[in-house]
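Side project, low priority. Logging it here so it doesn't get lost.
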Amino acid sequence: MTRRRFIADAWTATTATLTGDQAAHLARVLRAEPGQVYDVVANGFLHRAEITSVNPSEVRFALHEELETDAALPLHLLLAVLKFDHMEWAIEKATELGVSRITPILARRTEKHLALAAPKRAERWRRIALEAAKQSRRTDIPEIADPIPLKQALEQETSPTRILLSETEQAVTLTTALENSEASTKARVPHPSQPHREGWDEHSSPDRTTHALAIGPEGGWTPEEMSLFTQHAWQPVTLGPRILRAETAAIAAIAIAGAHLDGAQSC
């Protein structure tokens, strides 16, 4: 039987603590008792953990052996702010599919009332990501950034592979762009028999994301925004001939990228 999994609110090298709703659920709904064993994620690592004390406001665990887990996708999703029910659905599913980071983008065609209200929604989006991470048995929670304008997001992006879903692109598919990126990366990576190059960093960016994926708002990116993407070396791609809703395109693209990245890591 699969053990229930929780994500610790606080931890040390040997202990973990749940508070708030998680503690109340364990104490009141599951009627947890000292000695029971659960899976607990602490500081990004999954452990078998034994309850040492329980009350509705705090549950403490002793951490035992570390368990094997799957790593999150090294993928940063830049998602233009959508109608909030669609946005929440996209964040939930992107979390389940394994993205590492999500940045809500204030685009030129983002509806004005959505742009004004988006900063107040960020905490709700983070709670949705937390619940989706637990449901999908992730060992981490994707970072959900505060909403920022597109220009600022592009200036801050460090991922070496930058892919833009574009309605105007007809030739280059997402799969082709990913394959070309992989070939280019392999060409830059030193062979194991070669000496390590000064300055070589095996992690392509400080936040461990190697790929960034941008999804526009309903109505698409403006010509000025497309020019910004070009200036910052983003590769426009297509998902095919069908016109998809933004949230559908996001999930389809993440699934394709995830399959590619998982395949590349296993080679």
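Brief comment: The longest helix spans residues 112-135.
Revisit when time allows.
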